[in-house]
Write a structure and sequence with these properties.
CATH superfamily: Rhodanese-like domain
Helix content: 25-40%
Strand order of the largest sheet: 1-5-4-2-3
Number of domains: 1
CATH architecture: 3-Layer(aba) Sandwich
Number of strands: 5
CATH class: Alpha Beta
Largest sheet: 5 strands, parallel
Structural class: alpha/beta
Mean pLDDT: 97
Strand content: 15-25%
Order of helices and strands: HEHEHEHEHEH
Length: about 120
């Protein structure tokens, strides 16, 4: 039996830390926090959270692995990672993936970039 994607997202959110967009907004600009945008490049081109790094979900394991030639040191910097996508599903799976590979400080931003924009969160283009 195929497990629905919605069930995978639900399971991921149960296993990781989650933040509302309101709570996440309070973290923008903090030196000990890094926003991680796991959307596709075409989505990021339309805007992102200020200071966020782009780490598409499709390459996340490689970016998080210090032994990989694609490693992004920011992901293993010890900073609190706030992971987001458009609506919160992909970022839940991404935060769970980060936890699975040993990055314990990642949280999913519920509602994603769509809610972020709708509620007046700052956007960088």
């Amino acid at each position: 039996m195929i497990k629905p994607a919605a069930e995978l997202v639900k399971e991921a959110n149960a296993a990781i830390d989650t933040l509302s967009t309101e709570d996440a907004r309070q973290l923008v600009g903090r030196e000990d926090v890094l926003f991680v945008d796991v959307r596709e490049a075409s989505e990021v081109a339309k805007g992102k959270i200020p200071g966020a790094i782009h780490a598409p979900r499709s390459f996340l394991e490689f970016y998080a692995d210090p032994s990989s030639p694609y490693h992004k040191p920011e992901l293993t910097s010890g900073k609190r990672l706030v992971v987001y996508c458009a609506s919160g599903g992909r970022s839940a799976l991404a935060a769970k993936t980060l936890k699975d590979v040993g990055v314990e400080n990642a949280a999913n931003m519920l509602g994603g970039f769509n809610v972020w924009q709708q509620t007046g969160g700052p956007v960088e283009t």
